[in-house]
Amino acid sequence: MDAQPGDFIRLWHGGSGHSVILVRWVVLDGRKVGIEYRGTQGSTDGIGNRTEFLSGAPGHEVGDFVVERTYAGRLNL
């Protein structure tokens, strides 16, 4: 939950996952409810942005990704 735009993110959807770059947190009523990320995958037709939501976000009782298996890293130069 401490990840910042530009951080590398590894997220999982059950048995599969993606390595992406965080574009922004989706915030609703002051609460982080999802992430917009940039990555390469079929659903973005190559390189593109996608938004996925956390469990409990409005309309997403079950989250789009497993937050307990989501990891962030930052390149410090």
Overview of this protein structure:
The protein is an all-beta fold and 77 residues long. The protein has one domain (8-62). It has no helices and five strands. It has strands at residues 8-13, 16-28, 31-41, 46-53, 71-73. The chain has a five-stranded antiparallel sheet, with no helix packed on it. Strand 2 (16-28) and strand 3 (31-41) form a beta hairpin. The protein is globular, with a radius of gyration of 12 Å. The model has no long low-confidence stretch (mean pLDDT 89).
Poorly predicted residue ranges? none
Head-to-tail CA distance between termini: 22 Å
The count of domains is 1
How many H/I helical runs?
0
User: Element order, helices and strands?
Assistant: EEEEE
Helical percentage: under 10%
Describe the global form: globular
Instruction: Describe the largest sheet.
Output: 5 strands, antiparallel
Rg calc: 12 Å
What topology, given as strand order, has the largest sheet?
4-3-2-1-5
Number of strands: 5
